[in-house]
Amino acid sequence: MASLLQPLLCVTAPADAGRYCTGGDNGGSNELSSPAGLRKKKLATTRLSSTSNPFVKHCVKLRLSSSYRRSCGYALVVGLIPIMEVCRFQELNNEELSSIECLLLLDGMERPELFNLPSTSIVHVSPHVMKKLSGVQSVDSTEAVAIMKIPRSFFDMLGEHKEAVYPSWFRLPNRILVLDGIQDPGNVGTLLRSSLAFKWDLVFLLPGCCDPFNEKALRAARGASFQIPIISGNWLHLEALASRFQMKMLAGHPENYAEASSQISLLSAKLADSLANRPLCLVLGSEGLGLSPEALQSCELIGIPMAGIFESLNVSVAGGIFLYMLQPEKYR
Ligand SMILES: *[C@@H]1O[C@H](CO)[C@@H](O)[C@H](O)[C@H]1NC(C)=O
């Protein structure tokens, strides 16, 4: 009986979603407006083969719409590797493997080892449906997608929590990477992944940054969006945080230092050593727009010495160098 009900739990999810999610691009959704009908229709099936199924539409909308994700509290993760990485992380941290709401597998795929979880609903889908779900043309590369709960380690200060009350997981931060208007999802994802790799504590997203649960950002982050704490907030939130924890504010200057004035210090092992015991915020701006006036005003600028004639580095590459050089002392 229990195994019969599992897929049902999953398939009925959009019914609930239909009730709660009204923030999507198209406002509400007609297909989801009859939860009872949907539930009845799906009772017998654990396999989806039609792309016009409301549940498939719900998944696609989770992949494409940031506002829909926020109002539902779920994201769509495409690909078995990122899904497994999130599961492995939760296992290592002895967390309940609760983040997978539903796993959608390509026809013929076995339930992967990590998913012997009684609470995970599994639905099989046809190649045609998988293409629609993943947005990837060739299904060879995509065997699975998962609906995952947006974790509690993502905290939106611009949302309901207007006051600067920090979430319960918030501990004394030592290293914070701040992204200042970085829109490119590839950059946001790559920087999240590198921050996690070099044991930075938190990534702070200022306005104008891409949603870390955007499909391309998720692809680049390889699951890091679910693992590293992320705060989305404005400059005032950041300043409050930095002053409360007495953090030194640095900003990376991606331009070639040859042109730079004496106000820019150069990144070196010596500089990194001198900062080893200080809590730091490092702000990185976008390649197109650079740093915001607030960052330029309140941060000490540091540049990466370059012998070449390039004007600047890719922000993900520059970020990787900063994150590595300035990583917390205990890991250096
Ligand atoms: C910089 O690198 C990232 C990660 O590889 C990539 O997604 C992004 O498109 C690159 N930016 C530019 C301007 O090439």
Automatic annotation (TrEMBL):
Keyword Iron-sulfur: no
Keywords: Methyltransferase, Signal, Transferase
Chain ranges of the tRNA/rRNA methyltransferase SpoU type domain: 176-324
One Pfam family matching this protein: SpoU_methylase
InterPro entries linked to this entry: Alpha/beta_knot_MTases, Ribosomal_eL30-like_sf, rRNA_Methyltransferase, SpoU_MeTrfase, tRNA_m1G_MTases_N
Entry annotated with the keyword Methyltransferase: yes
Any one of the GO BP annotations: RNA processing
GO terms, molecular function: RNA binding; RNA methyltransferase activity
Endpoints of the signal sequence: 1-17
UniProt-recorded name of the protein: tRNA/rRNA methyltransferase SpoU type domain-containing protein
The organism of origin for this protein: Dendrobium catenatum
